[in-house]
């Protein structure tokens, strides 16, 4: 209450024909202002590495190098597969799909990562955040599907080599690629729409340097049961992909053990090494992050943030390197192109 005989102290901002109550009385207690917790927020805030904000500019240097190498490496894979006739085979068509999904993951996360570490700008609008999480989850689902397709490719090549080219024709490879890409888009498409229908009015700080569905939905102050259930369904489809990959390799191993010559066994298994590395590079960070969230809830947030960054940075970086090192045809093509340029 303001005592009678005294005038209230007006703010200097209380000017104009329709001044707001809060601008006229900034000194009054919060109870006089309408409940701010019910006002929907307009900006989310991403996070870099807690405690190392002073070094973000320096951290941005290796991050930029990783992105540069990943983008150039996957573009090179696509270029060599397109221009080299000897690489026009089902295995390399699937590899080009893997390169596209890796490029998508890199380009989806690049803007916010650079804004945080290079320009110290963690703010992001909800719509931009929803769009980013759609592309990140979409290309992640696509990569999981491509790894599954590549495991079937290895199974057919090893268990039925005489019919390999007749089974996996170019038309059939194209249809398989389009079907699984369409499946990945449809699977992730509800994410941004379900997030859009939630209300965000209290929390604004996200847990990573980019937007993820499970991270954004935790900020909502309205019921997010639909998001939780559908997010669990999407996670189960990823686990099913890994399960089918495991089954493919069990059948491959069974077929390899029937080969009498040990040298021939090693030669056959060597054709699977690149794909096995790609599977481990993709799934190990995901399961490590899930284990940390489930069983090490009180662990340092820096560990969770670094593991989440590894999930997006390492697969696009390492897959081109692994395939260039382990695939003799790609290695010879790369060396041949380089020698032509120097000659």
From TrEMBL:
GO cellular component: plasma membrane
Primary localisation category: membrane
The keyword Transmembrane helix is annotated on this UniProt entry: yes
The G-protein coupled receptors family 1 profile domain, residue ranges: 73-323
Topology of this chain in the membrane: Multi-pass membrane protein
Chain segments annotated as transmembrane: 55-80, 92-114, 134-152, 173-193, 228-252, 273-296, 302-325
Localisation: Cell membrane; Membrane
GO biological process, one term: cellular response to lipid
Keywords: Cell membrane, G-protein coupled receptor, Membrane, Olfaction, Receptor, Sensory transduction, Transducer, Transmembrane, Transmembrane helix
Coiled-coil stretches noted in the UniProt entry, renumbered to this chain: none
Gene Ontology terms, MF aspect: G protein-coupled receptor activity; olfactory receptor activity
PANTHER family documented for this protein: OLFACTORY RECEPTOR, OLFACTORY RECEPTOR 56B1-RELATED
Role played: Putative odorant or sperm cell receptor.
Protein family according to the UniProt entry: Belongs to the G-protein coupled receptor 1 family.
Protein name per UniProt: Olfactory receptor
Name of the gene this protein is made from: LOC115272203
């Amino acid at each position: 209450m303001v005592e009678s005989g005294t005038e209230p102290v007006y703010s200097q901002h209380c000017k104009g024909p329709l001044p707001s109550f809060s601008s006229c009385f900034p000194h009054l207690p919060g109870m006089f202002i309408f409940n701010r917790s019910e006002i929907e927020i307009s900006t989310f805030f991403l996070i870099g590495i807690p405690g190392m904000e002073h070094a973000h500019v320096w951290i941005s240097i290796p991050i930029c190098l990783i992105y540069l190498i990943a983008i150039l490496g996957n573009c090179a894979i696509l270029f060599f597969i397109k221009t080299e006739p000897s690489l026009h085979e089902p295995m390399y068509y699937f590899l080009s799909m893997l390169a596209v999904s890796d490029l998508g993951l890199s380009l989806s996360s690049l803007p916010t990562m650079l804004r945080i570490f290079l320009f110290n700008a963690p703010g992001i609008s909800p719509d931009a955040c929803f769009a980013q999480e759609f592309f990140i989850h979409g290309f992640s689902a696509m990569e999981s599907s491509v790894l599954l397709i590549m495991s079937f490719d290895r199974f057919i090549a090893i268990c039925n080599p005489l019919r390999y080219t007749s089974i996996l024709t170019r038309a059939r490879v194209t249809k398989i690629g389009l079907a699984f890409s369409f499946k990945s888009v449809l699977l992730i498409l509800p994410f941004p729409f379900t997030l859009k229908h939630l209300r965000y009015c209290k929390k604004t700080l996200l847990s990573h340097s980019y937007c993820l569905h499970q991270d954004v939905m935790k900020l909502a102050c309205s019921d997010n049961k639909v998001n939780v259930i559908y997010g669990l369904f999407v996670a189960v489809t990823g686990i099913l992909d890994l399960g089918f990959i495991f089954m493919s390799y069990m059948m491959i191993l069974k077929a390899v053990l029937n080969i009498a010559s040990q040298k021939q066994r090693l030669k056959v298994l060597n054709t699977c090494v690149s794909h096995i590395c790609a599977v481990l590079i993709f799934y190990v960070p995901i399961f490590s992050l899930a284990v940390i969230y489930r069983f090490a809830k009180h662990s340092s947030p820096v560990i969770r943030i670094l593991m989440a960054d590894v999930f997006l940075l390492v697969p696009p970086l390492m897959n081109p390197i692994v395939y260039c090192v382990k695939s003799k045809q790609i290695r010879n093509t790369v060396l041949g192109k380089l020698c032509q340029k120097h000659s």
